[in-house]
Amino acid sequence: MKLWQILLAVIGEVFLALGSRWIRVAELPKQEIWLDAGGCHTPMTVLDPPADVKPAGSVVLLHGLSANRRLMMYLAEDFAGHGFRAYALDLPGHGDSRDAFSFARAQDCATAAVESLIRSGRLDPKTTILLGHSMGAAIAIRMADRDPVAATIVLSPAPMTAPQRMPANLLVFSASADLGILKRVAQSLADAAGGQRTAPEDFVQQRAFELRWLPRSTHTSLLSDRRVAHDSENWAMQALFPDIAADTLTLNLDLATYETFGKGRRRLAGGALGFLGILLLFPMVVALAAKLTVPSAVTDATNAASPAAAQIESPGNHPSTRLLLGETALCAMIGVLLLVVGVPLKFLHIYTGAYLASLLLVVGVMLLIINFGYAMEYTSLPGRKLIVAAVLGFATFLAIGAWLNWQLDDAWLNAPRWLRFAGLLPVMWIYSFAEEVALGPVHHGLARAVRYAVFLLLRAEIFLACTLAWHLFASGQVLIPLLFTYLAVFSILQRLATDALRVRTVSATAAALFGAILASWFIASVFPLT
Length: 530
What we know:
This protein is of the alpha/beta class. The protein has two domains: 27-265, Rossmann fold; 321-526, no CATH class. The chain has helices at 3-26, 73-81, 103-119, 135-142, 180-193, 200-204, 226-240, 246-255, 258-262, 264-290, 296-305, 321-341, 353-370, 372-376, 383-407, 415-439, 446-472, 479-482, 484-505, 508-526; strands spanning 30-37, 40-47, 57-62, 84-89, 128-133, 151-155, 170-175, 209-214. It starts with a helix and ends with a helix. Mean pLDDT is 89; it is low at 296-311.
């Protein structure tokens, strides 16, 4: 065990403790319920304002495609901290919901949930705000035809069939770095509304409209943008209290900040800090796990003879960098062309995830065929190392999933997602093994940095192939470009962790199994189930 690993672990424990404290300080009254309505079994989180605050109204939050209600918690808690009762829903196939996803089903279940809350008296349409992001924004807009409410707030709305009437008091946010098609949707709403209308009498007549272009923002960053939260709450208050001057409402919101009630932004910071703490614990955990792969006497003797010997893998044969980049680009383009004919893993019923897994399977198989000679040098199956890799892989995603599921995101697998995980694992192992063969052993210094850069280029080639397939072949996989940030962050962390294990186990197959477990978890937890 090295000193730096121990220091990182200590810092990680401090971050976890501090993050937990910040989260608990910021907590608001909360209920977790399941709502049965319209044939849907909808998970829902209900947040109430502090006990001494009478709710000014209610806000219903609808998440986007491949998201969940926990990703809406920053906005939900900010609304609740400023005096609203917040209802955050999981749409079918997302989060904790076990209902199968389709766009029509998502809208039906959202509508059924809102109508059920209205019938039960928990929502008053005259004091209710609908807030949606992406797909949820399109649903919120279309709900105006059936369930008129006081105001509708939408973040980067997805393409939709236009409703028969515009929602009352509609506020639209569009991100500066969003996809062009989504910017055009936002602009089309402005055109349909006839331009900006923000005078008090517009709110009284329920015809207020505003389109706000947010600089320095992306499709997903809107969910945690302080500007979005503040402006949304101000818009909601104007819709509920049109007789009060807008400047007065803004001043009241600024004075009655969520920090006054519960230090609201600390919850988000605490969740991120705890996640970082888990990552900092990983080097020590993987070092301890690696000690189980080789008897201690052998390890001590090897290290005594040559401390570096145990950390250099042999053989080191693998394709040259230029050849590898060309092979991967070719395989990726052939893969997306083949998927035009059909998606072999469609039976997994994972929206876009089946397409991504199928592409990785095609690329992995082709790379192994092209580099068959290299692959045969890495085919040993060391039982102890594989067991350690499997245990470490499961422990890693269970720890991260549990923490994220508590505060930031829904990354915990329910029963249907565990079934998808089992189906994905052998496919992801094929691709992960092909990647380990192609990249070759992990060395140190500049060679390791170059190898990591090559890995990033390989992943970028696959991502670009998916994006081109969406643009040129109308593959319909727009979710992959939308999830670019998540895919990039996951790829970066996955490779760092996999390389750390490969260095210590000196086994490409064990590293591939570890990487495959993480990749299977990511796809099974992130993408909607159909």
